Every structure is written in structure tokens, then in C-alpha cells.
Amino acid sequence: MAKYTGKDCALFVPSGTMGNLISVLGHCEHRGSEVLLGDQAHIFLYEQAGMAQLGGIQPHIIPTRPDGTFDVNEITLRLRIEDVHCPRTTLICIENTQNVCGGKILPSLWIDQVGSIAKSVGIPLHMDGARLMNAVVASGESAARILQGCDTASICFSKGLGTPVGSIIVGPEEFMYRAIRLRKVLGGGMRQAGMLAAAALYALENMVDRLADDHKHAKLLAQAISETGSKNVICQVADVHTNIAIVHLHPDAITPEQFCNRLSMVGKVCLF
Ligand SMILES: Cc1ncc(COP(=O)(O)O)c(C=O)c1O
Q: pLDDT tens digit string along 193-240?
């Protein structure tokens, strides 16, 4: 994975949440630090505020745009470096593909821009790359190219790639020593981990290209929904970049449960 991502080292961890938490804690060694990230980031929305709960670190959110990016000018406006009243900004996080925005692929030039701003102020950039391989397959760019401007990334093998457990943190060697200690204290140290590593290796060698099928299927699903012309069930085909198709339901017309029941009838009757 180090070779695949163009980084020095790779460290196996049990989950994406742990990969992100170790990365945040590893970069922000002092309580009272602040992390800049999008307000639709998985780290902010769905990881129990782990950085605050366990590290005394505060997330500082930037509005996420529908394409999964945020305005880079917001970074400089929100940076807090040295003021006795303020926390210190010690990390920037981005997410690729962006889950809540519908599996959107972040443009590499935007990532580079965020990376060079971060570098210019001496702050690292971490990518929550839970679905990085989806971005690789759909964009045709290598993981190393996509991650060029990032210091670290957490990448999952359990999403779309078929392994039951497992994520990898990639980054510089000196960071990985901190990451190993953090993995241990979080209870993520593993002994007989070869079986999991084998599943991840298999996924890397055999399952990545297959993600293209998932992307095709997500588009087909979106197309089929959109072709019904329903005003109550809406799915924008152009918004499907990878393996996520977000369906908007009119709350007065159909509940998510009813919609799922109707979907299970596809091939029999399907009337929206
Ligand atoms: C973007 C993103 N990051 C992190 C995670 C967390 O991964 P895990 O469920 O392995 O902890 C997810 C899970 O869906 C995710 O979508």
C-alpha cells in the first residue's frame, strides 16, 4: 500500500474510523488543537466526535459544496496559528470520495491547492480515503497522484472491496511510530492478523478494477429511477460519480421504508 500510494509507510488498522482517529491524534499532539474540515465530512458527522472525546481536539467546520470540496479561501480565513485566546489549527482533513455528497470524486487540482496552502502554513493534510479506490477507478488517476498533496490517508478495504475488516493508514515514517502507539492504546493492536492482511492483499490485487461494475450499477439504478419521471422520487444521474446513488423522496408521498419495499419488487411491479 505504501508503494501503491507513493508514501513511505503503511499501517493496518481494524476500521476506517480508527484510521481517521489515529491520523488526527497523530497529527495533533496537543489538547486544545483544532482541525479544519468540511461540515459534511464523515469524521465530523459519524465518528462520535472521537477527536474531541478522546483527544481534546476541536473540529472547525467549513461549508461543504455539493461537489464534496470547500472554498479554499476559507482555509486562510479560518486558520488560527498563534493567539493566546485561540486553539491552534494543526490539521486539515478532506474526504475522497465524499460520501454524503454522493460518492463525489474530489478534483486532484483542488486537493493539490489545499495541500499547498497547508504546506505554506506548516500544517499537514489528511485524506479520509475510505473510498479512495473508487476515485482511482473512476478517474483513471493513480492513488499516488491523487494523494500527492496529502501527508497521510486512511483507506478502507471493507467498502466495496470485499474484506470483512481492515483499513490502512499511509504516510511518512516518523508519523507511523506515533500511529503504532496510538493504534495500541485504542485497542487496535492485532496479533494473528495475517488472515486479515491476506484478505486486504487479495482485495488490492483482485477487487479494485471490479469497482467499475459497482459504478455502472449505481448509474443504471439512478437512470431507472430518473426515467420514471416521478416528482416524488428523484435521483440525478449526473450526480452519480462512483458507487453511491442518492435518492430524494418527497416526505408527503413516500417513506424510505416504502421506497425500499417497492425497490424489492423490481421485476414484478414498480409504480412510484
Ligand atoms: C468516508 C468514510 N470515512 C470513514 C468511514 C468509517 O469506516 P468504518 O466503518 O470502517 O469505521 C466511513 C464508513 O462508511 C466512510 O464512509
A: 999 999 999 999 999 999 999 999 999 999 999 999 999 999 999 999
DSSP letter (8 states) at residue 32: T
Q: Which atom of ligand 1 is nearest to the CA of 156?
A: 10
Instruction: Give the model's confidence band at 272: pLDDT under 50 very low, under 70 low, under 90 confident, else very high.
Output: very low
Which of 48, 156, 169 has the most ligand 1 atoms within 8 A of CB, as the residue to mutate? Answer: 156
- In angstroms, rounded to a whole number, what is the distance separating the alpha carbons of residues 128 and 94? 6
Instruction: Report how far Cα 230 is from the mean position of its chain's Cα atoms.
Output: 31
CA distance 125 to 95: 11
Is a pLDDT exceeding 60 seen at residue 8?
yes
Domain ranges of the chain: 2-206, 211-263
Helix 16-27 vs helix 173-185: crossing angle, to nearest 10? 120
- The answer to whether residues 129 and 154 touch, using CB atoms and an 8 Å cutoff, is yes
Residues with CB under 6 A from ligand 1: 15-17, 20, 42, 95, 99, 128, 130, 156, 158, 167
Q: In DSSP terms, which residues pair with 125 in a beta bridge?
A: 92
Assigned CATH for 2-206:
3.40.640.10
* Backbone phi, psi, residue 33, to 5°: -85, 170
78's grid cell: 479560518
Ligand 1 center to 17 CA (angstroms): 6
Question: Grid coordinates in use for 53?
Answer: 472525546
Strand partners, 34: 58, 89
pLDDT tens digits for 15-71?
999 999 999 999 999 999 999 999 999 999 999 999 999 999 999 999 999 999 999
Q: Which residues pair with 24 in a beta bridge?
A: none
